Amino acid sequence: MRSIGNLRRITEKHEGESILGGTDVGKFPRHHFILNSNIEFESRWPLKVIVCGDDEWVEGCSRYRKKTNIFSLELICEGSLEFTQRGNRYHVGAGELLVIQPGADYQMAAREHCRKKIMIIGGYMLPSLLSAGGWAEVDTLRPADPELIAGYFDRVYEAGDERSPGYLNFSSSQAYQLLLE
Q1: Regarding predicted confidence, which is higher, 69 or 109?
Q2: Residue 146: CA atoms inside 13 Å, Cβ hemisphere, count?
């Protein structure tokens, strides 16, 4: 294995019972996220996009989370990641989705340059949607049309970036449609 310069372990972050840690390489991973957060949004929306955006990793970047407190869909656009969740190990490449499950332990690591789109979804309606839609047992998925799926991520990101009237509602409806695909 070749030496990777400028590795830096990140300090573990405790978020309730969830613990997040990992390794950065120089300025990577680079996060280009829109965070949707306000009191009204946090309290009453049945389905909401909390974070959406692009992520860029290089070889050596890694993250792990114990008892994750999020549900995240992550579409690999370029490159690949090693991904382990609930004891199952995967090599996930371009056009595939990682499905990070609430309550699960996971690890991911880049063995090469990787770009991905991320959408973290929450809300009190999410658990029933995941169960009814069959998402609750899925760790990875290869969509029939990755470009169609990427469009949902892009539209939510653009709406959050512009913050035009109704963008939270629009983002929630896009997340709902994505979960139905």
Answers
A1: 109
A2: 15
The helix (H) or strand (E) run that includes residue 97 is: strand 97-100
Percent of the chain whose pLDDT exceeds 90 = 77
Helix, strand, or coil (residue 167): helix
For the whole prediction, is pTM greater than 0.90?
Answer: yes
Question: Looking at residue 43, what is its pLDDT?
Answer: 64
Length of the chain: 181
CB 121 within 8 A of CB 85: no
Pairing relation of β-strands 97-100 and 71-78?
antiparallel
Report the distance separating Cα 67 and Cα 115, nearest Å. Answer: 25
- For residue 27, what are the CA distances in angstroms to 64, 76, 96, 147? 18, 20, 25, 28
Which residues are within 8 A (CB) of 58 and not within 5 positions of it... i.e. 6 or more apart? 25, 26, 28, 29, 110, 112, 113, 114
CB contact at 8 A, 142 and 96: yes
Tokens at residue 149, please?
């799926």
